[in-house]
Design goal:
alpha/beta, Leucine-rich repeat, LRR (right-handed beta-alpha superhelix), 3 domains, eleven-stranded parallel sheet, about 35% helix, globular
Length: about 400
Amino acid sequence: MSPPSAFPPEIYDKIIDEVSSSKDALAACSLVERSWKPKSRTHMFRDIDFTVCSTGSTDLHLHKSIEQTAAFQDNVASNADVALYARRLVVTLNRSGNIASEIPQASKLRNLRSLTLKCSNIIVYAVNDAILSRLLSFVRHNQNLEYISLQSLIIDPSAFDVFMKCIGIRAPELRSLHLQSVWGPDWTTVAWNRQKSAQRSQPKSHTVRRLCISHCEDGAISMFLSAFDLKHLDRIALMNLDWDSCVAMIVAILNSPSLTHFTLDLSDHRQFLTGEERIFDRLVNIPTVQLLIKRFSDAPMVLQGLQRAASQRKLFLKQLHLHFRQYPCPSDTMVDAALHELHLIIPSLRVSIGFQSQEGIQTTKIGALFRWMSQTGMLHFDSLDAWWTDEAARY
């Protein structure tokens, strides 16, 4: 039994918190006395990264990778003394092929809050694929997951449908979801289109508050919407999606009264904006809107659409950020005029300008393109609020 301490335990907890960035210091603290061990392990094993790092195809590479997985399984995933403290798990699969045996099982990792699966374009061929079963085991064993990120996965449409349903059912506490680069194999294009057009009416998960979807197949959007109800959505970012996917998502959030922050990539969709008044009607009802636009010459059309919508309905739009992928030309002065007209309808609107690359920007030259905004002191330069990049750290 440890001798009685001269100080309250809160003092020791504070000391351990101060050295939480050093694994060696935490390991030393855990050996001081038994009462220090839980707090030390809370920091030591909170964040866990596992990588299937075998990039070769020889039997030696495969053997080493399987040994690494077995060691992780024994020392972390199946070790209750360690797995109990894990809250954030990042699994990176660095090679293709049949690597199911190299993906650990999450038998004891039952307290995860954040799960990131970086799949490096591995292919899931069917619903009964062993890789899919291993990936889904992380979801099935963790009903307290609040954040899930699925990245760079090539997957059969039926298997992806199962994946979304499993998340919707088995992760009742899910608050944030990030889908990036989810595609179907080339030979399943017809199946993806069939999934895209299918109508579904089964129960949906209502818990997602934050959502980012980027570089995903059109059919993936349809299957996501069949599994999740976005009625309580707070933030959404739609990046590098086809126009049909953008429209489907915007229609799905028409009745989301809690939505406060919307990021929409319009870089390749200028030709589709004409006549899409419902898009602008929705945007002016969201307090903060970020629009990614390719060229300065594309912005007046977008701003005029917002102006028309703002003149016909009650407004909630308070902050507008225009993020350009290309620098302006000296003749690009129409944006300033369009912003002036929009400000006449929404006098309290705060507008900021940003660029994909901030290096080499001469604000004096760009300011000359915004004479009205410069004269009124309304010209603000800011970076894109890419909140989804740090989302995992919130949980």
